[in-house]
Sequence to fold (257 residues):
Amino acid sequence: MKGTPTTAASPSTAHYNLRYIWLISLVAAMGGLLFGYDWVVIGGAKPFFEPFFRLASEEARGWANSCALLGCLGGALFVGALSDLFGRKRLLIVSALLFAVSSVLTGWASTFHWFVAWRILGGVAIGMASGLSPMYIAEVAPAHLRGRLVAINQLTIVIGVLAAQVVNWLIARPVPDNATADLIRESWNAQYGWRWMFTAVTAPSLLFFVGSLLIPESPRWLVKSGRADRARDILTRIGGVAYGTAEVLDIQDTLAR
Fold:
């Protein structure tokens, strides 16, 4: 029976490279951190970019704050098929680049229309990361560690949300209680502060990009793409020779069924 070899790599006998497993999982989970940050950062920037772009109507304000959802929808809809076609690793790299580029372009948009366009692009990155990061972690993690490692992605989302609030608080300068829209529009917060709130995510985005270049491809995707030998090498590094051989056979059996 094809599934039989998995007994050779049971949790009690396999020698897992836990440092390596946690490292690649943490890199992938950075997609969750950027997801959380990029989704929430607009809350702190809202009081300043709205006066800057002179958004007077509720429709314009609502569109500014929700337009990223359009990109999220597109990213989430197509990331599965694209990752099956090109691999998990390549799409993680693309999402990291989108986070970095969209954050800078959103922060330094000269007009409201460009602000919306780049915000939608950032939404694409959010939608991609929401599916890719947990998928990748689940496909590289040993079965008995899978739950806790995938949960790292949920934790990093919350950390990203917190980081956005802290960064916004650190960047924004005090605003007088009686400040008018015109006064806010001419203030440092409206001219530059909200821009740096968006731009700040560039640093972790580039770190995510470099990390994604260094992590291995998903073994499951490699087996599915006919590159079982490469998948075995990666799995051997994770859990030893017996584990690598057993896991490849198990993946092949699962795909066949």
In short: Confidence is low (pLDDT under 50) at residues 1-8. Residues 32 and 180 are 37 Å apart (CA to CA). The first helix runs from residue 18 to 52.
